[in-house]
Amino acid sequence: MPDDVLLRLSGWMERVLACRAQVTALIPLKGGGIQENWTVCATVRDTPRDFVLRKDAEATIDASHSRRNEFALITAAHAAGVTVPEPIAFCDDVGVMGAPFALMAKAPGVGLGSKVVKSLTDADRPALTERLAREMARIHAIRPPTLRNPHLEPVERSRISANPARSASILRQAQDAADCEPLAFLGKPPTDFATAEVALMRDWLDRLALSRPGLEWALRWCELYIPRPRETTLIHRDFRTGNYMVDAGELTAVLDWEFACWGDPMFDIGWLMAECWRFSRPDLEAGGVGERAAFYTAYEQESGRKVNDSAVRAYEVLAHCRWAVIALQQGDRHTSGREPSLEHALTGKMADELELMALRLTRPERWRLRHDGGLGT
Amino acid sequence: MNNSHPALADFLAAAETLLRNKVIVASQGDARFAGLMVASALGMARREIALGKQLESANLDLLELAPQPSPFPDMAAALTQLIRGGLMDGQDELFRRLQVDAITRTAVTRPQVVSEHELRLAGLHELVAP
User: How distant is the Cα of A163 from the closest Cα of chain B, in angstroms?
Assistant: First the structure.
């Protein structure tokens, strides 16, 4: 990385941190197909400290938020007691890094889903399953301001951060910001989340000019059988193994907020449970980490909300469809010539197995359940 | 029919084996990741050649269910509209053909996730190891 970039970034960090800061290295991070992620190695007040810088990649996925909006989401989640990378500041000045970016503290541990699943011991699994459920429940405690619920639910200050002064400051900032609805960019909550999601998937397929009858079959099933939501909350929309960091068996941060929206909280549970996110442990339904029942119990305790199991299982079908369509979008980044990459091309090919998984869950007998008084009623 | 196809499949298989056994095992980090991606692409290309006829036949079989003539640019688009419109909800025959088509494509892209039962269903059990 050229020295002038490091100098510009050092200058900006000194301004936002209001102290001596020197960036010593910028190291690109793997993953983040939708954003460019960098480790920022810095010395702050003579102490070495690592941060993560996120800025948009050359081509982005249709539904992903701008870095500014993503930073607002992480700040709101941090204030609500969700374990996220500590938000430091956002930079609009394209003169610093060539594009707007967000700076956050770096969370320790492993993020890659396959590694997380393999690295856990049997002793780690129950505690991590419970922790995942509680973290998700805290996200779902954030309600749309238009529903006249408190924007931020009361949280124990000790949960927010290990640094009480920093936590209090962030909480004050978030509460001040809540007055002007910092998540207003999320728009109005949909009246029927699942129907809106199915319409969105069809629109994405149309925009790719792709006809995928197998995915259409599963999407039509979702349209008919996903129950109407009982309530609307903030949902992460990509809460799955691979999007949180684990260090020595403990969760250190929930990452990748770029798809968050107002929606049905059962969607997030279905997304985490979907077979496509269990990696080498398909037998462990909660993200390849733990038991479904243990997750449900912890989620219900933390949220005070009953899990609607039939809705969760129906959302698992939608999860396979959604991941398949996103894989096709990634593949299109290669085939369109916008961002040629073998990795993107291979991701596009994953749509075939995801379509097969969605078909396994929507056999013709599952279309008759509603008429027999089963699923979806 | 292109008679060079079996030879080409063998050629790709030899390249994939060499890459996996000599290059990837001796690589680390980004180089290993790149090697694995290339090996995966070679494997897909090899299986696509091997299952070319089955892929074509499964797709044609599925598209037979599309209405003709139709105002849509292709038969897959016409079938899509029927499904979206609820005109083929839960139909056994459509499902069977969708399943065979998806199994055959997945047998090319990621055969390890296709079960033996599914391979039999698609008539691939003698061509692909489960």
Answer: 35
